[in-house]
Each structure stands twice: as structure tokens, then as C-alpha cells.
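Open question from group meeting: does this chain pack into something compact, or does most of it stay loose? Before anyone orders reagents, we agreed to write out a predicted structure and look at it together. Recording both the input and the output here so the notebook holds the full record.
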Amino acid sequence: EYAHFAKDGKATHRTGEFIVGWVMDGRAIQILWIVDPSGTRRDREVYTNLHWLDPKSRAWRSAFVDPEHGSVARFTGGPVGHDRFVLETEDFGSGQSRWSANGIRPGSFVWRDEASSDGGKTWRLQAEYRMKRRGAVPAAQ
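C-alpha cells returned:
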């Protein structure tokens, strides 16, 4: 369940998928974002992230690819506490952006997209995605 928030606070609700898997012989995690069509938009949106641990700095690095708009954003971050993971970037050109996975549990978490135009003193919630793990497929007998 995706909710995008305009600057005036109006929310737009959408649905989609968040597919996660280990890639590159287990050295990286790839996420495929699929946002279902809604409103006047007839095509789905598809994005990808690649996350890896930098062995020198011990920080997590991430590259977000948006082929529809021809952009790539680079993030850096890592775990915060026991149930939160935070990545930050300045690659969107409008100040700082912070993406975080919050309340991480075996079957769910909340992904937040926030922006700051004052150097990180305050953050505005731009989107919140409530993710739920699909049930496991029963093994064939």
C-alpha cells in the first residue's frame, strides 16, 4: 500500500509490489519496485535498487535506477537500532533525501521517503509504503 503526500498534505494512494532478492553471488541485494497504474496513468512504474556493503567503510551503498526519467541516485547509510535501516542522498537535486525501512519484522515493514531543504534539521514525509510479505507457496507434493 503506497501513499504519496503532496506539499499541501493531500495523499494519493496506490498499490504495487516490492520484490527483493540476493544477486551477484550473494554480495548485493536487488529490489524491484513496481507501482500499479492509477488515476490517469495507464502504465505501471518500474524502478530498481542495488544495495551492497562497502567492505572498506562498512557503510551500505545503494544505487536507485529510474529508467522512465533517465536518472540514477546514489545513497549511503546503514542500520539504525535493531529495526530501522536508513539511506541518504543529495542526488535528486532538491536538497537531501532520506529513505528508511522502519519497524522491520519477519512479515512487514514501513518504507518512508523523506526530504529536507534545511540540511537535515527538519524532514517532510513525501511517501510511505506499508509492505507485507506474501504467504509462502506450499511445496508440491
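Observations to bring back to the group:
The mean pLDDT is 90.
The two ends are 33 Å apart (CA to CA).
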